[in-house]
């Protein structure tokens, strides 16, 4: 069985699999608006079990009638190796620990104002998050996130040049504001230095 590449699913290279996955995720999340997560999970498991048992019985029936080879219909999935060796498990665990420690250090620096500008960015982000929380709950944000994962990368791939130009202009303005704020914080609120090659030229008498 061919390997399922996550990026192929995100970029809709395998339309059938991506469609099934995308539809299942969105329908499942939408169901949580009306049903409890226990009901949704149990219903999905029940539907999957009904499908797999029915297919298995159908293949066994064909084999009894000598109309099939008797091969298990899900043999390719049953033979798929999803185990980890001790070295791989240790490697992934080490990466997880490093990631958690790095995140904890970053949060400590942000909340204890190790860098004033970074802490101010977090402050603004949290302030905007309060407005987002007033407009939508976490489930709505999660559904929007799933839709974005399956639409934004494909849109960017098809319109990369226009998107890059648009964000380049935005980042240029952000960097200008950041430089201005840093000069104000450091006590140098004067104009930015001359950007011409060699700096300002001396005046000739």
Key descriptive features of the protein:
mainly alpha, 205 residues
Give a verbal description of the structure.
By secondary structure, this protein is mainly alpha-helical. Among the domains are: 10-80, no CATH class; 151-186. The protein is 71% helix and 0% strand. The protein is built from 9 helices and no strands. Helix 2 (15-31) packs antiparallel against helix 7. The longest helix is centred in the first third of the chain and has 28 residues, at 37-64. The protein is elongated. The chain starts with 5 loop residues before the first helix and ends in a 20-residue tail after the last helix.
User: Could you tell me the radius of gyration in angstroms?
Assistant: 28 Å
Give the number of DSSP strands. 0
Sketch the major β-sheet.
Answer: none
Q: Looking at the structure, what is the overall shape?
A: elongated
Distance between the termini: 82 Å
Assembly form of the protein: single chain
Instruction: Enumerate how many helices there are, as a single number.
Output: 9
Strand content: under 5%
- Helix coverage percent of residues? over 70%
Q: How is the secondary structure organized here?
A:
Blueprint (H helix, E strand, L loop, with lengths): L5 H5 L4 H17 L5 H28 L10 H4 L7 H26 L4 H20 L2 H12 L2 H7 L1 H26 L20
Helix pairs in contact: 2-7
Summarize this entry quickly.
The chain has 205 residues and is mainly α. Helix content is 71%, strand content 0%.
